[in-house]
Amino acid sequence: MFMIEESKIRFNKQLSEIKPKAQINDTVINGLAEDPIGDYKFKSQIRIVPLELVEKLGINILQDEEEYQKYSKPEFDPFLQEWTHQLEKLWNDKVRLLDLYTRRSDELISPFETFNRLAIILRRIQRRTILLMPVDPSKKEVKPVVQKHIRQSGEEKEYKVLRSYWIDERGDRKRLISRHLSDRYDNLEKEIANLFFDRGYGVQRDYKSPLGHRYDLVIERDGMKSVVEIKSITEGAFNHLFLFDALLSKFKEDHPED
Questions:
Q1: Which residues of 180-190 are buried (b: 16+ CB within 10 A; e: fewer)?
Q2: Regarding beta strands 173-180 and 214-221, do their DSSP bridges make them parallel or antiparallel, or are they unpaired?
Q3: pLDDT one-digit tens code per residue, 146-186
Q4: What single-letter DSSP state applies at residue 239?
Q5: What is the pLDDT of residues 209-231, one digit of tens each?
Q6: Number of CB atoms found within 10 A of residue 28's CB
Q7: CA 256, 141, 235 angle in degrees (round to 5)?
Q8: Residue 43 predicted with pLDDT over 70
């Protein structure tokens, strides 16, 4: 988190040095000044701690918020790790764009090449913003769209679809993620287990530890087992998590170097 705060402070310092009158009609500066990324919506509702620690220190480190914060680390939680990584990249891109846009830092490149570099960084910022906040910033939470389907029998069936958007190489906004939810909220434990399984984790439900303790969900990868405690996660928070996972897959497919 230190690197994220450092990048954010550096960006805000540079932004404050720009004369206010230069910002009034400058869409790039005004766009950079906006920060739609709010609090991480699911980091405290899905708690992940190594099994060895839980067995040693007791289940209280998963149940008590203050105790959990002592042991909560991004490297234990793949979603938190990815989110902090993308957030740091977002702020670093904003710093780079602001620096190039206001200072023309490389005098050897042509104005046309400068414009191309600005456009590339701006698209990266737009993609990451959508990845971290997968709906329009004016909306408060992610809500599914209810659609109806008529079966061959004539029966009408309602189903829920989660949708989010992507920025293509030209900078155009296009809907790219559309995921069928079915009855996911009837069994969140199963759906969250599926998210980990899809990420390459071994997943065990109703796990009984060597000490005789039972845990709802235990994940394992690279020889490390972790207990996953699912708190009273809201529908909106789960939708955010679900879309973040789907958008991240698309992001890495298009930009494996990031």
A1: ebeebeeeeee
A2: unpaired
A3: 777 777 777 777 777 888 888 877 888 776 777 776 555 55
A4: H
A5: 888 888 889 999 988 999 998 87
A6: 14
A7: 95
A8: no
Helix (DSSP H) and strand (DSSP E) numbers for the chain: 10, 7
Give buried/exposed letters for 92-128 (b at 16+ CB in 10 A, else e): bbbbbbbebbbeeeeeeeeeeebeebeeebbbbbbbb
CA dist 231 and 79 (Å) reads 16
- The token pair at 10 is 């550096």
pTM of structure: 0.82
Residue 37 CB burial class (10 angstroms; 0-12, 13-18, ≥19): middle
